[in-house]
Amino acid sequence: MFIPFVRTLILYIIVIAAIRMMGKRQVGEMQPSELVITILVSAVASVPMQNLDIPLSYGIIPILTLISAEIFVSFLSLKIPKFREILTGKPVILITDGIINQKALKATRLSIEDLQEDLRLKDVFDLDTIRLARLETNGQLSVLLKDIHQPLTPYTADTAVDVSPVYYTVIADGYVNKTTYSILGIDDEWVKSTLKSNKIESVKVIYFMLCDEDKNVIIVKKEGK
After folding, report:
1. How far is it, in rounded angstroms, from Cα 184 to Cα 171?
2. What is d(CA 43, CA 130) in angstroms, rounded to the nearest whole number?
3. DSSP secondary structure code for residue 222 in this structure
4. CA–CA separation, 153 and 145 (whole Å)
5. Which of 67-81, 114-128, 142-156, 159-173 has the lowest mean pLDDT?
6. What is the DSSP letter of 156?
7. Whole-prediction pTM value?
8. How many of the other CB atoms lie within 10 Å of CB of 91?
9. Which CATH superfamily is domain 92-149 in?
10. String of b and e for 155-194 (b: at least 16 CB within 10 Å)?
11. β pairing state of 130-135 and 217-221
12. Is the pLDDT of residue 12 over 90?
């Protein structure tokens, strides 16, 4: 019973590390090659988990091989645009000035219902408002509205606005996040002083503490503390 547990835990750690090496894309943003590698890694990892007669290395080596191949292919894609085009394809323009490109829609095997659904998910319900819509290589639909239908912004309204502060997490669930120290120009002594000035004796009672670059803080204690 202990051996399957250890084998599964080892493979779990290796798969997590492998996916992390591929980058931080969400599943919906993966290129075809990345999605294929993800599926293959999952399939390969499941074999040694289910069959204890198979050596663990028979699962680890294929996973490392697949990830190495993906990293190499990604490197080639960055250096050779033509190779990237062959691997991932090219974006396809589906709508121009409110007119649907029916040939492109047919070539991408999208129905008009699929297109309308993707547009509705982007809060676009009228084709006439669209200047350009294209299907990206990762399957996402990007939409550019005509100028008259663009959302109003302070820039287009020629209106000055105050710059909103950017807050960073200094403490989360009782633990100090020191990676923000260099951004905010703070240190342990500043944190201790700030807590003391707010009559807080321990970071363990803090649910979260945020701080901006002007040293303004927002502190929320854990419930019941």
Report:
1. 13
2. 42
3. P
4. 14
5. 67-81
6. T
7. 0.61
8. 13
9. bsu07140 like domains (3.30.240.20)
10. eeeeeeeeeeeebbebbeeeebeeebbeebebeeeebeeb
11. unpaired
12. no
Please, where in the chain does CATH 3.30.240.20 lie? 92-149, 168-221
Q: Is the pLDDT of residue 25 over 60?
A: no
User: How many other β-carbons are positioned within 10 Å of the β-carbon of residue 88?
Assistant: 16
Tokens representing 185?
A: 């120009």
The dihedral of CA 18, 24, 28, 33: what is its sign?
A: negative
Specify the CATH architecture of the domain 168-221: 2-Layer Sandwich (3.30)
Question: What are the residues whose beta carbons fall under 8 Å from the beta carbon of 47, sequence distance 6 or more?
Answer: 54, 58, 59
Which residue from 120, 166, 140 is spatially nearest to 25, judged by alpha carbons?
140
For 33-63, write each residue's pLDDT tens digit.
777 777 888 888 888 777 778 888 888 888 8
Share of the chain above pLDDT 70, in %: 92
Average pLDDT over residues 137-157: 86
State the Cα–Cα distance between residues 94 and 134, nearest whole angstrom. 5
Q: Edge-to-edge, what's the strand order for the sheet holding 130-135? A: 99-100, 92-96, 130-135, 141-145
Q: Which helix (H) or strand (E) holds 206?
A: strand 206-211
